[in-house]
Specification:
The chain has about 290 residues and is an alpha/beta fold. It has seven helices and nine strands.
Length: about 290
């Protein structure tokens, strides 16, 4: 399938938001995807996009009502999806969730790690004002759980012997300095390094690892801070669908020779540092556990 066949786009609107774009429903046909943290925001958009590309989707979230709402939207549109409630920082719950997804779909092929964030868990402040518990909390929510979900997923992929794809949601804060949110930046930098490392470890097994690093994303978690144009050269905030489209590409056969890479989806912000804006806007994507 060519790139032009894989994507459907409303060509009458040159500046349409990504909601006017859809993926060919055969792009991920016969694939099963797990979205860890898929109950809202970026995660929900990723789950919907994977389903629109033909994947069966397992939405894992700490809140069952959120996961179920995303699943209802997917199934109402004719897709296949299940919801699983799990605490992603609990190894037993993670392993059970991945096992259940594999049992429901007859196997699993794609994992997207999107849970995390900082805004809801810690105030922005300089390093001297951080305490150990909060620092550990941010690394736990943004890096350690990825070890748990990925370990469980890789074990299934190795047993199946058919390869697979893991896409991690990183952040521009892990690619540049991260003043006043050092723990988050350190966690996301660690995530991109983990992505590269696992790409090398599991390349011979045909398991690809890539990351998407968003800039400022207009999600419900930061709705109160979205005003005016972004400081990015494209002069708008990203939508969750912008991030989701990048994930579908990396998860799909269109990226079959892409591994160990981090794709910055930031409207050009990283090409324009230092940013200048009257009111500093945190360059951090907020995902939901």
């Amino acid at each position: 399938m060519s790139g032009s066949e894989a994507i459907r786009y409303d060509r009458e609107c040159g500046t349409c938001p990504p909601s006017h774009m859809s993926w060919h429903p055969d792009l991920l046909a016969n694939q099963a995807a797990v979205v860890a943290g898929g109950g809202r925001g970026i995660g929900a958009a990723i789950a919907r996009a994977l389903a629109s590309a033909g994947a069966a989707v397992c939405v894992i979230d700490i809140a069952n009502d959120r996961a179920s709402e995303v699943v209802d939207a997917i199934t109402s549109a004719g897709g296949q999806a299940i919801a699983i409630q799990a605490e992603l920082r609990d190894p037993r719950q993670v392993e059970s969730a991945i096992d259940n997804a594999a049992a429901s779909f007859g196997g699993v092929n794609v994992l997207v790690n999107v849970a995390g964030g900082m805004h809801a868990y810690a105030p922005w402040r300089r390093l001297a004002d951080w305490d150990e518990d909060t620092w550990d909390e941010i690394l736990d929510r943004n890096l350690r759980y990825v070890f748990l979900t990925t370990r469980a997923m890789v074990r299934h992929l190795l047993a199946a012997g058919t390869g697979g794809s893991v896409v991690n949601i990183a952040s521009i804060s892990g690619e540049t300095s991260a003043p006043n949110h050092a723990a988050y930046g350190a966690a996301k930098a660690g995530l991109t390094n983990l992505t590269r490392t696992l790409a090398v470890e599991y390349g011979p097994d045909q398991i690809r690892f890539n990351a998407v690093a968003p800039g400022s994303v207009a999600t419900p978690a930061v709705a109160d801070r979205v005003h005016g144009n972004s400081a990015a050269p494209l002069q708008r905030w990203a939508t969750p669908e912008d991030i989701a489209n990048a994930v579908v590409f990396l998860a799909s056969p269109l990226a079959s020779y892409v591994t160990g890479q981090t794709l910055l989806v930031d409207g050009g912000a990283s090409a324009n540092f230092p940013l200048t804006t009257p009111t500093p806007i945190p360059l951090v994507n907020e995902e939901a556990l």
